Amino acid sequence: MTMQANAEPITARGTAEVPAIEARGITHRYHTAQGEVLALEDVNVAAPQGKFISIVGPSGCGKSSLLMILAGLLPPSEGERLLLGSARSGPQPRDLAVAFQDACLLPWRTSLDNVSFPLELRGVPKAERNTQGREALAKVGLESFADRYPRELSGGMRQRVAVARALIQKPAVLLMDEPFGALDEQTRMDMGEQLLTLWDQIRNTVVFVTHNLTEATYLSDEVIVMAAHPGRILERVTIDLPRPRSIEITETEQFIHLRNRLWRLIRSQE
Ligand SMILES: Nc1ncnc2c1ncn2[C@@H]1O[C@H](COP(=O)(O)OP(=O)(O)OP(=O)(O)O)[C@@H](O)[C@H]1O
After folding, report:
1. Do 54 and 82 sit in the same domain of this protein?
2. Which ranges of 140-248 does DSSP label H, i.e. alpha helix?
3. ipTM of the modeled complex
4. Ligand 1 centre from 216 Cα, in Å?
5. Contact yes or no for 167/136 (Cβ under 8 A)
6. Which residue has its alpha carbon closest to ligand 1 atom 2?
7. Global confidence as pTM
8. Which of 28, 65, 73 has the most ligand 1 atoms within 8 A of CB, as the residue to mutate?
9. Residues in contact with 220: Cβ distance below 8 Å, sequence separation at least 6, in sequence order
10. In a domain, 81, yes or no
11. Same domain for 203 and 134
12. Domain containing 37: what range?
């Protein structure tokens, strides 16, 4: 697989100055039988085009809620969410793809049919979507598993199918909520390395929610640290490690320094 460190960022429209995705003054309240929960308070986040942004923070600080709002799947109580400079509501599948911790594959479809599903929804003819589907599976190293069903794959393989399905849409913005959270530490880092190799080729905008500070430091250009009760932005940490990155970078002094900084920020809230 060739790595293109300087690939042009995917810009669906507009100029590179327009953030790919942005949350402006987002406040969100859930109404429960026990009363109101203030999940997010005045959150402002702008993910520049072609950047990899992670969101970390203690459990319950509103990371998933923020991602759902950015995805257009959850209307915020206050504030607005802009996708490529536009405040259109609801998900826009051509500009945006979402991958969750649970791979959410359709159990009755093969890997190939799961990966090519977004193209089917767009009415792409079968021969073309099969070609693109096989290409996408090859990118995540699963070309020989095209005809397998999800139940016949390991957890890591299922997650790779989900990543291929998200990437086949060539979205300008990819939102990922703990996509490797259910995997063991070794598989998780392997998946992170593979994701970075793919991302180096397309350089779209990724917003990645994780609990894992090593993963966040390794993948990101910037890590947004959130605080809880109410959920808000505590600090934004620039990760100025060189790219392309390989797993060995996690052993460098600069990496450990950045990761420890994130850890201290999270600890300061306890
Ligand atoms: N559907 C819901 N109804 C009521 N309260 C909710 C709902 N979803 C989330 N919350 C509450 O909103 C707050 C933020 O939750 P959210 O899941 O966004 O946080 P998180 O940072 O993603 O948590 P975790 O890291 O544990 O996944 C929490 O207090 C949570 O209990």
Report:
1. yes
2. 155-167, 185-202, 213-219
3. 0.98
4. 20
5. yes
6. 30
7. 0.89
8. 65
9. 52, 53, 54, 208, 239
10. yes
11. no
12. 21-95+172-268
